[in-house]
Amino acid sequence: VPYFIGRFFEFDFNKNFKGNIVVTEAPLFHMLGMQKISLESEEFNKKFKTFASDEFSAFYVLTPQMMMNLLDLEKANPGAIDT
Questions:
Q1: Are 71 and 47 in contact (CB under 8 A)?
Q2: What is the pTM of this model?
């Protein structure tokens, strides 16, 4: 039984963060222990759903430049992206 079909990206940062962050195009019904986060970019919020167990880490990681890079990645590689 397949549980996931598609692409999955994991990014490594030079700094350790508290909690987890999930950015997805796929409709998710719930993310246990995570809250839905709305970011500064309306374009990003329309394209992706963001969930985080620590809101401050999400805002630290998902800078305007990082959101732009993820949007560019999605445009260059059409299809659902889960990170």
A1: yes
A2: 0.77
